[in-house]
# Entry
Amino acid sequence: MKEQWDKIIIGIDPGTNVMGYALLGIKGKQASMIVMGVLKLNPIEDHYMRLHRIFERVTMLIDEFLPDEMAIEAPFFGKNVQSMLKLGRAQGVAMAAALNHEVPIAEYEPRKIKMSITGNGAASKEQVAEMLRRTLHLTDEQMPQLLDATDALAAALCHHYESQRPFGSHAHSSWKDFIAHHPDRVKK
# Structure
């Protein structure tokens, strides 16, 4: 399968109840969904065993599809500190699985992903899923019931879009910002 793609991106929407995952194949500039789904962790009562299961599943996906890069949704800041800690742990375990296989990681805030896919950083999960369906020409049968999977696919597609931009995902807000990050590219 790896031979038919120039690049494969694994997208992860971390969670301790449900983790979304997706693999996006890139051929030239064309992106296609390879697979997407969710890992349901609710049946596992022990939080540490949930983290172990996340590590196992991400490792299995990496072993099977051999992605070149990982795009992961960054935790958003909420009021519940305990939820934030759990979500951060889930993200860290998924990242550790990628690092264990030397897969580079790109992290994107939910707002950035939504903006990249829909043009609206405040878009709903349903709007993101619908735009993905249209953009990637997904059939109704390919669309998942749980939107954690489409969130993971959105992270992967956002990463693909960002990697197409000049200077990769390190777009700069001004010339001053560019110069500060690339002093070697400025003639004195």
User: Anything to note?
Assistant: Residues 17 and 41 are 5 Å apart (CA to CA). The mean pLDDT is 89.
